[in-house]
UniProtKB/TrEMBL annotation:
Cofactor(s) in the UniProt record: FAD
Entries under InterPro entries matching the protein: FAD-dep_OxRdtase_2_FAD-bd, FAD/NAD-bd_sf, Fum_R/Succ_DH_flav-like_C_sf, Fum_Rdtase/Succ_DH_flav-like_C, NadB, Succ_DH/fumarate_Rdtase_cat_sf
Function in brief: Catalyzes the oxidation of L-aspartate to iminoaspartate.
Name listed for the protein in its UniProt record: L-aspartate oxidase
Family: Belongs to the FAD-dependent oxidoreductase 2 family. NadB subfamily.
One MF term in the entry's GO annotations: L-aspartate oxidase activity
Domain of life: Bacteria
Domain Fumarate reductase/succinate dehydrogenase flavoprotein-like C-terminal: 428-511
Gene this chain is encoded by: nadB
Catalytic function, reaction form: L-aspartate + O2 = iminosuccinate + H2O2
Domain FAD-dependent oxidoreductase 2 FAD-binding: 7-382
UniProt source species: Billgrantia campisalis
Amino acid sequence: MLRSEHDVLVIGGGVAGLTLALHAAESRRVTLVRPASDDQGASRWAQGGIAAVLSPQDDFDAHVADTLVAGDGLCDERAVRFTVEQGPAAIEWLLSLGVPFTRDPSPDAGYPYHLTREGGHGARRIIHAEDATGRAVLDTLMIHAQAHPAITLRDDLTAIGLIGDALGQCRGARCLDADARPVELLASDTVLATGGASGLYRHTTSPQPASGEGMLMAAELGAALMNLEFQQFHPTCLYDPEGPPFLISEAVRGEGGRLLNARGERFMPALDPRAELAPRDIVARAIDAEMQRTECDHVYLDIRHLGDAAIRHHFPTIHAHCASRGLDIVAQPIPVVPAAHYSCGGVATDLDGASSVPHLHAVGEVACTGLHGANRMASNSLLECLVFARSCAGRLAERREPAQAPLSPWQPGASSVDRERLRAWRLGMRDIMSARVAIVRRDSGLEQAADALEQLASEVAPMVQQARPSVALASLWHALRLARLTVASARHRRESRGLHYNPDCPRHDDGKTAPKPSRIHLSNLPDEA
């Protein structure tokens, strides 16, 4: 088995991982494991932009207040204020690297770059690069990472597990190379930047969604996971059963897009005074209910009234992509449907990205910082990636310890993996989660999901013990156990709050104390105790 020693090991190469690497490399040597699939992950498909207080007409208190409202009483206000107050500096850093944000040419603009507004925000505070912000930021960060002498990029490896030592500390990661050969990377400090868990569901907004692999890898070492029940469904994914998923940005509604049902009627103004600009959980549930009421498998997002010039100016990527799929959004409303988009829960961390396991950090969607609470507000995600990656790098700069040997040598199995069987298992898991643990959950459905996932796990477990390791098998096993923990978290929360809506307990259950985040460990599964 190949084994090597490293200083800081970063697993994941989206915006969070690359930002962490660039800042940590100012004081330490960094190895970044970034499989080719990261190019199709959530960061690249982030269209809308980055929320930050940049306009003279905006202020920190307003951004904090909007975030707290969207989080439905479950945000950690300290984490919210920390993130919001660090936002302008993070944007200035991106500008210094050359990210091509869209400028505002109007002579009375209070800020040189165009700021748009999205759901839940009371002001225009979303800086963007046309409608392809994630791609612009990711490409810029990648150029700088490739040129940095203290950063080593490994695109030939995929992490499938973490390495622990006898003291319960993280000491690196177990990986597979392109030929499925095992490789161990020992590290003084390890940072997970592996993304969320939207891949647990059948329909997502990303072509290559993560399935919570990093969350479960951390849980295997004993890290606490938090708020897994709060899975965000983006209200507007392009409805095209025959084609790949494609997100229709929140900014489309921010610039005046209107939601219409199958009969061409607006339905949001009657449900919420903010109409189409209500937080995502409210809009997604409204669309889901309207689809059921009209017995239609989608609704429409209409921007025809904005006119050809405005549509092409603000949404060139969306316009071009829809045109490539036979849809002229200048002349036709866009068919849309909610799809799994963002995990508000994940590895519980502090404000520096530290988990409950020594020498293991998590940044980006894999982490749960307390910023999002029960529902992430639009465009706070890339902001969180930037702010917490920078703070985590600051913590890493203050200490370094040599990597130690793992607790026990890795002994992979020997039998082969049936790929079609793996595929069927994964589809089965996604169908269970989509049918029972999606936008609306009921007690009976959650019970059925728990039983079905436990049965599925009992079928997969023997193969995990006996088969040669593969990325597909490891990903499935991580995802399946995370799905079970998600169901357990949803069953434990006896209320409806934010993204977790259960008609069997439809009200907030605040009682005499403030609502609490839900923490869970892998040992909460009976067969993992």
